[in-house]
Design a protein that fits this description.
Elements: E1 3-6, E2 9-12, E3 17-23, E4 32-38, E5 45-50, E6 57-59, E7 67-72, E8 77-82, E9 91-98, E10 117-122
Parallel strand pairs: 2-10
Antiparallel strand pairs: 1-3, 3-8, 4-5, 4-9, 5-6, 7-8, 9-10
């Protein structure tokens, strides 16, 4: 499976954005999807993950209560709704897939990385 993130842009602090993660192939429902981000000069970090069915989610503490991950298996697409954005959320956002059960937060568990989408939050 190959995934591609889109929907980034420039937004003021306190604003919202919704990112999309489109998957190729017909087995999207068999994979958990994760969102990661990489800020300039920093390592890529875990943001959120969602189960194959979409019924289970897990978030990094830094985004909990502000971001919502969802998954539409019929559309082969996952989403990341980002509210109450802060300047520290500025980063390139990526999505990827995994077959690992549980709540994998490590980058090496995931594959199918596409090009990320830039999110810039101005103060």
């Amino acid at each position: 499976v190959q995934l591609q993130a889109s929907g980034g842009g420039l937004v003021q602090a306190g604003g919202s954005l919704r990112l999309s993660c489109a998957a190729s192939g017909r087995t999207f429902r068999n994979y958990r999807v994760g969102w990661f981000r990489q800020a300039p000069g920093k390592e890529r970090e875990f943001v959120a993950t969602i189960s194959r069915s979409g019924g289970g989610t897990y978030y990094a503490d830094s985004v909990k209560g502000r971001f919502t991950i969802s998954k539409d298996n019929a559309k082969n697409t996952a989403y990341l709704q980002m509210n109450s954005l802060k300047p520290e959320d500025t980063a390139v956002y990526y999505c990827a897939a995994t077959s690992v059960v549980g709540t994998p937060t490590q980058e090496y568990h995931y594959y199918g990385w596409g090009q990320g989408t830039q999110v810039t939050v101005s103060s």
